[in-house]
Amino acid sequence: MTTKTDITTLDDIKLLVDSFYSTVQKDAFIGPIFNGKIGNRWPEHLEKMYRFWQTILLEVHSYSGSPFPPHKHLPVDKEHFDRWMEIFVATVDTLFEGPIADEAKMRAKNMAEMFNYKINYFRDASQNGDLLNSK
């Protein structure tokens, strides 16, 4: 059995991202949402995710942008984020071990919770606005 190492290089990030999204694409619950949104732009999305996680975990500032807006109107709920986290944690735990791997899971958990909160906030605001506008 090989000893797992921590996430330390861009190649590690690429392995994590590619492995994670390979599983996501095939997942019966969240795969259709990702595949429907991303379509044939998976290579572009993966490149963006490499830069995002490289910036977050390795402090190599290769990503700029706001990660939330593309997710704002996705048809997702807490159960979708829970499944996303299950896959992410399993992927990290299968491939890596160490403080940066632990940080990756913590950052993913914080992001999933924040995205879920914000999506629900905007969904509720939109629905309440629709109710107010219909009176």
Automatic annotation (TrEMBL):
Keyword Chaperone: no
InterPro entries named among the record's database cross-references: Globin-like_sf, Globin/Proto, Hemoglobin_trunc
Cross-referenced Gene3D superfamilies: Globins
Residue sites binding heme per the record: 71
A GO molecular function held by the record: metal ion binding
Signal peptide: none
Recorded superkingdom: Bacteria
Protein keywords: Heme, Iron, Metal-binding, Transport
Keyword Iron (UniProt): yes
Pfam family name, one: Bac_globin
Protein name: Group III truncated hemoglobin
